[in-house]
Design brief:
With 302 residues, the chain is of the alpha+beta class. The protein contains six helices and twelve strands. The strands form two sheets. Strands 1, 2, 3, 4, 6, 9, 11 and 12 form an eight-stranded antiparallel sheet that branches. Strands 5-10-7-8 form a four-stranded antiparallel sheet, with no helix packed on it.
Length: 302
Amino acid sequence: MLEADVLKYPARLLTGAQRAQYFNDGALVVEGAVGDDWLSRLREAAAELAERSRPVAVSDATFILEDGHSAESPRLKRVASPVDNHEAFLDFACGSPAVEAAADLVGPHVKYHHSKLNYKWAHGGSRFDWHQDIQAWPHTDFSPVTVGVYLEDCGPEQGPLMAVRGSHRGPLHSMYDAQGRWVLRIPEHEIDTARVTALTGGAGSLVLLNCCTIHGSAPNRSDRSRPFLLIVYSSADSYPYTANPIPSPLSGRVVRGEPARWASVDPRGCEVPPDWSAGYSGPWAHQAQSRREAGGQAGPVS
């Protein structure tokens, strides 16, 4: 569903000002949107998945390991598709404030696409370079929104998500490097640093991110991890036209409203990613190699 059509429906969870800020900036933090009952369930589930990772020695389709991970001291970058690995995440993705927030931004008929749980582990949780998301999972329109939930308080020292305000209105950058390798990375010199904002928030904050907004995050050098649940939704009439990098039996399910009979099509094109059918473990290694070759460019996500 295109933005003009979405705005014909009244907002339910967001205020009018919050909704306007999202469409203007391409990013929004909503403090205190997720209550203590949900937070308790999600925290327990995140801790349980970390425990399950102890015997994992090499990153696999579910657990992406952080440097220094061991059975004695687990350290995770990511759990892929947490909805398929714990009932609490499945319940949250299908019926929670996350779904209602998505409906205010993509229209009343909401479809699930994929999810991940990024831990940003204490004392060195990895950076994530500047990038845009939609090139990794292009759709027939640009309605997809990522709904993030901070499971713990997230301040500037923990490597919060950072976004370039208004960049969703600008061009789509290539996510390939000069050698044609998929790196999901925008070089630092292409970023308008004057428009960068840190999306910090307390536990239970929703972070809403447009699929075209440039964003990234710094390493976590604090003594507190930053578990961050990320769920991607689209309007029900928006359809992916490449394989899902994080597939799930839930992908494509309408979690609010009704299925679409017609597709929403934005006339703007979108770069196509590699074939994900063989699996996808994330771009961290590719980004690191690209930084080394570029001379280790520093900046807000360094």
